[in-house]
Amino acid sequence: MPCTPVVHGISPSQPEQRNTRRSETVEPESPLTRRRVLLATWGTTGDIAPYTGLATGLKDAGHDVTVVTSNRYADAFRQHGLGVHAMPLDQYEAAIGQLPTRRARTNNAREMATVAARCLLEAASEGTDFLLAHPLLHPQAALIGRGLGVPCIGTYTVSHAMMLPRLLAGNPRHRYRLADSVVRMILSPIYKPGAAHLRRELGLTPSAVEDLTLPTSRHSVRYGFGAPLLPRRLRFPASHQVVGAWRPRRAIDWQPDARLQEFLESGPAPVYFGFGSMRGINHDHLAHAITGVVQRLGIRAVVQGGWAELQSHGDDVLNIRDCPHDWLFPRIRAAVHHAGAGTTHACLQAATPALPIPVAMDQPFWASRLHALGLTPTVIPHQQLTGANLTLALEQLLTDDRYRLRTDRISRALRQQDGTAAILEEVARPLGSAHLTG
Fold first, then answer.
1. Strands, E, within 283-350: which ranges?
2. Per-residue pLDDT tens for 39-49?
3. Which of 20, 40, 179, 194 could form a disulfide with 68 if both were Cys (CB 3.0 to 4.6 A apart)?
4. Domains of the chain (ranges plus CATH)?
5. pLDDT tens-place string over residues 93-105
């Protein structure tokens, strides 16, 4: 299945013509050398948003940036003048959450991973100096980096181990690598067909053991989240570093909806309710709970529909579509959200108190961290949400000033880390640095 590149270069079926292997003689390079950077990212809207900030930061610094992402998100990067190599994943993305069996879901994921592998190789073959990869695309990118002799760094907004928050609880120092390895092994079958294709195209020796764990703790990874949120005893592998969040970049021509501005200006600051790209939640039950808590606490609410198309009703409720969190969150009183990494960081950077209602994946981890740091009175898993416990918890959050004060302190600490600047430093280093090899 073909990709949609910015320019048509060398076909992956012609490896002998690729501008791939670097000469044995490496010329001295200025730290300001302009790089051709290939940034690969895919996932939900929350996955994509931080990479708009990272990609535009690299472009603004003078690098030539091409983004590999799905058709669904191509415009989020093109509107900033970035080159995009679009992956034709539309039919597979549409099937997510719709397939009835585990085998069908696995096959769908394998197809996506294989299409991504082909598209990544095609884009990289057109010429690149540096690969940066979202965790879902890091296995393919790491193989391509090795085959082409190009540095590769995993750029993650979540670690694999965070998908198993219960295993990390209590003693994360000794359990982190175990949790990390377990998740990688669970995911590894998804990547086998794509890895086999890349090995054939790149002339790499087959390795069943390596494919089972690739990429491992020896690969370079930079985490785009805030170190102040992590447990003190959590220890990452030496080649993994926490650099700070990558802040999403708004669309150039974005303007707030007039209805939203009027609502915000017409009364006290509202409470935000939103669950991002989560599917499979009972939106009718959730909407009823929101309507009830608005009435019981006498508050106003902004409800963001997201993928679940959540809507609530009432004179003091405004339903909205997409809205940049960096603009909205400083204007609200508190946020009730799913505790995705992007929403959690946006909330904290705005110093907005939050009540987490995690749904899946890494959300229970971030929710537990908000609670452990004293930033929220409790965590309510979405399966356990009722009108009563939502009312009680939100009332505590709104009336106890300690949550706002602690949130403000954490916000100031998070702003000390500049995740984009850290990646710029990595990209500016001389090519061939051993610690940069994927």
1. 301-304, 317-320, 334-337
2. 999 888 878 88
3. 40
4. 32-245+417-436 (3.40.50.2000), 258-414 (3.40.50.2000)
5. 888 877 888 889 8
